[in-house]
Amino acid sequence: MLGRKDTAEAVEKRMRINKYIAHAGVASRRKAEELIKEGRVTLNGKTVMELATIVKNGDIVEVNGSPIYNEEKVYYLLNKPRGVISSVSDEKNRKTVIDLMPHVKERIYPVGRLDWDTTGLLILTNDGDFTDKMIHPRNEIDKVYLARVKGIATKENLRPLTRGVVIDGKKTQPAHYNIIKVDHEKNRSVVELTIHEGRNHQVKKMFESVGLIVDKLSRTRFGTLDLTGLRPGESRRLNKKEISQLHNIAVNKVK
Q1: Per-residue DSSP letter, 211
Q2: pTM of the shown model
Q3: DSSP H helical ranges for the chain
Q4: What are the phi and psi torsion angles at 200 (to 5°)?
Q5: How far is residue 248 from each of residues 93, 119, 237, 253, measured CA to CA in Å?
Q6: Which domains does the chain have, with CATH numbers?
Q7: Which residues are identified as catalytic?
Q8: pLDDT digits over 27-55, tens only?
Q9: pLDDT tens readout for residues 103-141
Q10: For the chain, what is the mean pLDDT?
């Protein structure tokens, strides 16, 4: 059962079904479109196949056989520890970020993902529109990572990252770097990298493309947010000012 709010809040206005699913906190709009294409969404008992389907007052929408309803929008900041999956559930029964937040009643999910062995800042919410704004590359929201790499980082070998490198057949957007520490004796370096995208294993692959292998990675900042005051595994609810600042970054970047 996906949970529910008062039925009077179910549909406040006409909206496309993918947007309705996102507003209900089930998934982002993009993920909602996938659910529809997979035949997992019904409207008034009938399977929905058209992405442009409109939901009206009184309509009943179900995902995987469970009715969904709009919830209060909530936003959380989590310091994700190593060995935790950035997912709502896991078929291998590994610990997920949701397991770290049993106090949250709403159907939250992570905004983007961090690898199993990557630690640091992760936002969780039930607001699909917010999620889309935060993860879309065009909004150029800074995502800052601190990487410990095998090899000696220099301006020369990191320069390609500032122009973009090709990984998985697609060129990355220009990144910014800052060499924090170089240990010649241990053949190891620490580099801060700022990117705007969130592709699969992107940071690790970017470093690998310039001959550096990541052996420890943490996300330290996302837009205006950092991990001040949060230990690994701890979380807190974002306040209205923090949420507004993130929205403003996305809007201003688009302009």
Answers
A1: T
A2: 0.78
A3: 17-23, 29-37, 128-135, 155-163, 202-209, 240-254
A4: -60, 120
A5: 38, 26, 19, 8
A6: 7-67 (3.10.290.10), 75-137+229-239+249-254 (3.30.70.580), 142-222 (3.30.70.1560)
A7: 115
A8: 778 888 999 999 999 999 999 999 999 99
A9: 999 889 999 999 999 999 999 998 888 988 898 878 789
A10: 90
